[in-house]
């Protein structure tokens, strides 16, 4: 499904600010896997997502999706089968366009965008159906400008736009981090809904350990651009937040005073 | 005076096509494109040199638009592939086009008075029909023939053409490709994650925009009866003025509404200008200053108007509240404290 081999990425190489963001990382996702990724700030989680989605190219290594080498395929070509939701609720939608126009854009991910009408009545019906199958209360506001929606609503729309066309891989970059607890839970529920509905292969970055344990079937912990801990389904079910802390400590062999605060 | 106003209306309609092009880059793509100053003349230059050499005016105008399209695309390539800042890319193209336009024309000025243009051809056809007489009838009936234009030909024909271009733009901006183009100006990061090639959109958007501008230029030289290499100086400001005045006066609630506002804005700009030029102390050389004043006014007045209205609202509410406070707690407590 998704295969990462020996990925390396160094920023500002050859300067005093040199930083190894990803250090020889390998990871394989099987069809239907839902992997949660945790790690402190600067561990390379976001860089990893950016490399998978093609925003950044790795210095070394190989990325394959469905046994096709996509390592240096540009972002806009890759996003045919990669759906993404960003941390910033403003980033995933176009504020000056209506909900239906945004959804039509999402549809254009898999169909070549031509001179057909963007929002046809047939599509309108399709959008309505899709939106009403989730508890987002947006189905009657198709004409509303997205800029008028709240952060939570925009994030829900981003999530539905990212998954509308059933991408091969869904990348979630702390997509609930900017929301209040109630909204975050709402988005979490929608995420679980939509992922199970289409059996999407998902990689989710989070800072919330509870969330990382409660969602998905695999868990990885990153630090300094490496995977330092890996739990499969059975192991993950047994894990507690405390265990994760200990794992982190063990792997790093240093006190967690600072990281404890960061990781909650 | 009346003739000047009708003249302003006619040229306003022709400039409206250019304003629609500027709207596409300035508002939709969020790309302040200065190529306009050059591509406007390029359209006129290509059209006029072709007409002088015997090409049909219709094809010549189209070719002018095509040349503008290419010019716009080059600006787009400079920005997207060359990573040049939008303003600088536009300026580079603008000064390059100055020389290119002179090359195309071969001399700084081409008279077209004896050539067959869209307007001379159309006029022959127009005069074979009695439309002018029908349209003149209400003026005759009211006894205000002095207020009638000498002919409705330009107003009607260019008016229809402008509506056509407006509708074309409205339609395009609602197609799948058009939506992607709008999203490129609205949230580029997002469109990329939805597998759209933003670079391509910017290049094509600039091309279409400058095609509109160049067609407008091709029509202006035929309307004026000459092409001049200096015709495009300050054209971007005229375009921006049209967009800003239009949006300010006629609203921007939807795409169709905004494009209509831009067309009306282009006409309004010409009318304001021609009225200003009628004033005794204003000379033709003050044109640019007046343009600057109009644009500044269009930008500043709506803001001040809103601030003033908000203040009135605030003062009214304050008065009501102080009144109740006065009744409850006495005059001294309610008095507003000032420095």
* Largest β-sheet summary of chain A: 6 strands, mixed
Low-pLDDT runs of chain A: none
Sheet with most strands of chain B: 2 strands, antiparallel
CATH architecture of the largest domain in chain B: Orthogonal Bundle
The SSE order of chain B reads HHHHEHHHHHHEHHHH
Q: What is the tally of beta strands of chain A?
A: 10
- As a percent range, the share of helical residues of chain B equals over 70%
Mean pLDDT of chain B: 92
Number of helices of chain A: 10
CATH superfamily of chain A: P-loop containing nucleotide triphosphate hydrolases
Please give the radius of gyration of chain A in angstroms: 19 Å
CATH class of chain A: Alpha Beta
Give the SSE layout.
The complex is a heterodimer of chains A (264) and B (339).
Chain A: E1 2-11, E2 19-29, E3 34-38, H1 45-53, E4 60-65, E5 68-69, H2 75-78, E6 82-85, H3 99-107, H4 121-132, H5 151-163, E7 169-173, H6 181-198, E8 201-205, H7 209-214, E9 218-223, E10 226-231, H8 233-238, H9 241-252, H10 257-263
Parallel strand pairs in A: 3-8, 3-9, 6-7, 7-8
Antiparallel strand pairs in A: 1-2, 1-4, 4-5, 9-10
Chain B: H1 2-28, H2 36-52, H3 57-80, H4 86-105, E1 109-111, H5 118-127, H6 131-142, H7 153-173, H8 176-186, H9 188-193, H10 198-224, E2 226-228, H11 235-250, H12 255-278, H13 287-329, H14 331-334
Antiparallel strand pairs in B: 1-2
Helix pairs in contact in B: 1-7, 1-10, 1-11, 1-12, 2-3, 2-4, 2-10, 3-4, 3-10, 7-12, 8-10, 11-12, 11-13, 12-13
Describe the protein:
The complex is a heterodimer of chains A (264) and B (339). Chain A is an alpha/beta fold and 264 residues long. Chain A has one domain: 3-Layer(aba) Sandwich (Rossmann fold). Chain A has helices at residues 45-53, 75-78, 99-107, 121-132, 151-163, 181-198, 209-214, 233-238, 241-252, 257-263; strands at residues 2-11, 19-29, 34-38, 60-65, 68-69, 82-85, 169-173, 201-205, 218-223, 226-231. In chain A, the strands form two sheets. Chain A has a six-stranded mixed β-sheet with strand order 6-7-8-3-9-10, with helices on both faces. In chain A, helix 5 (151-163) runs parallel beside helix 6 (181-198). The model of chain A has no long low-confidence stretch (mean pLDDT 89). Chain B folds into two domains: 2-278, ABC transporter involved in vitamin B12 uptake, BtuC (Orthogonal Bundle), CATH 1.10.3470; 288-330. In chain B, 77% of the residues lie in helices and 2% in strands. Chain B is built from 14 helices and two strands. Chain B has a two-stranded antiparallel ribbon with strand order 1-2. The longest helix of chain B has 43 residues, at 287-329. Chain B is globular and about 90 Å long. The mean pLDDT of chain B is 92. Chain A binds chain B through residues 53, 75-80, 84, 86, 90-97, 101-102, 104-106, 108-111, 113-119, 161-162, and chain B through 172, 174-180, 182-183, 186-187, 189-198.
